[in-house]
Automatic annotation (TrEMBL):
Organism: Fuscovulum ytuae
KW Transmembrane (keyword) present: yes
Gene3D superfamilies, per database record: NCX, central ion-binding region (1.20.1420.30)
Localization in the cell: Membrane
Keyword Magnesium: no
Domain of life: Bacteria
Domain spans labelled Sodium/calcium exchanger membrane region: 3-142, 162-301
Transmembrane segments: 33-54, 66-93, 99-118, 125-143, 163-181, 226-249, 261-280, 286-303
Membrane topology according to the record: Multi-pass membrane protein
Protein name, UniProt field: Calcium/sodium antiporter
Major localization class: membrane
Keywords for this protein: Membrane, Transmembrane, Transmembrane helix
Length: 304
């Protein structure tokens, strides 16, 4: 039964990602927003919904290692695994002129949460600071995300249908991710795997599967701005929204390994993506292969 749920989850992720990308692209055209902004906001937040649900549930259940490990592991997987797979499928363009503010937000969020983890806890006050960062990010994204009217094409999909496809795709993605995470976690616990490892790997990758499905399908459909914006937006939401909201609900104790071992990887991947965006203007296929190799190195070197 567990394996059947795993397969059903995979199918749900595929179809959910397909409809989400098509719907989000149409929404962007209707509101004359760039696909990058839709990827950073609607798609980024929507595909981060599983992380939010899992982290809040874990924190309330007295499993803080899963809550924090889920966010940090997801941010690492988003760049190394998801962008790696997407770049192998199709080279990704990263328009720095459109994305520089958002890359800055990602770097700022990463540095902020690293500082917060140093004392072994994310407090309610720190959660409020992270939530304020989320509001600032959303405000900036929508204020600067309009495209010129002559650049906008409205397309043939009615607005109601575009929103229905977007929201329906998000719902299916969340359901699929939930099925996958539950079944994989059950198997891991049967083999005696620790909560920190489960949070950093199975739960983190499992809750990142909506991002993987969405970015991979966006790459196949040549919607590279959505593929990249989805990952950058998700990384920002993971820190500002998920850790912020979770800490507001209940302070989160932090295992020392997160600040000492995992945060350097989170920071390195964020800085590395920014450098690649500035120097190369995107991710060629060879960069995708290197990102996937780096993710394998992370799994091995951190002792997971």
């Amino acid at each position: 039964m567990t394996y059947l749920l795993f397969v059903v989850g995979l199918v749900a992720l595929f179809f959910g990602g397909e409809y989400l990308v098509r719907g989000a692209s149409a929404v962007a055209r209707h509101f004359r927003l760039s696909p990058m902004v839709i990827g950073l906001t609607i798609v980024g937040f929507g595909t981060s919904a599983p992380e939010l649900l899992v982290s809040v549930q874990a924190a309330l259940a007295g499993q803080p290692a899963i809550a924090i490990g889920n966010v940090l592991g997801s941010n690492i997987a988003n760049i190394l695994l998801i962008l790696g797979v997407s770049a192998v499928i199709a080279p990704l363009l990263i328009p720095v002129r459109k994305l520089w503010r958002d890359l800055g937000f990602m770097l700022a969020a990463t540095a902020t949460v690293w500082f917060m983890l140093l004392d072994g806890q994310v407090t309610r006050m720190e959660g409020a600071i992270l939530a304020i960062g989320l509001i600032a990010f959303l405000t900036t994204a929508f204020l600067t995300g309009k495209v010129d009217e002559e650049e906008a094409t409205l397309g043939d999909i009615p607005q109601w249908k575009a929103w229905a496809m977007t929201l329906g795709g998000l719902v299916v993605l969340v359901i699929g991710a939930r099925l996958l995470v539950d079944s994989a976690t059950e198997i891991a616990r049967a083999f005696g795997v620790s909560e920190a490892v489960i949070g950093l790997t199975i739960v983190a990758v499992g809750t990142s599967l909506p991002e993987l499905a969405t970015s991979a399908i966006a790459a196949i459909r040549k919607q590279t701005e959505i593929a990249v914006g989805n990952v950058v937006g998700s990384n920002i939401f993971n820190i500002f929204s998920i850790l912020g909201i979770t800490a507001l609900i209940t302070p989160i104790p932090a295992d020392p390994r997160f600040a000492a071992i995992d945060m350097p990887w989170v920071a390195a991947t964020a800085v590395g993506l920014t450098i690649l965006a500035v120097v190369l203007g995107g991710l060629p296929r060879i960069a995708g292969v290197l990102l996937l190799a780096a993710y394998g190195g992370y799994i091995v070197l951190t002792g997971i």
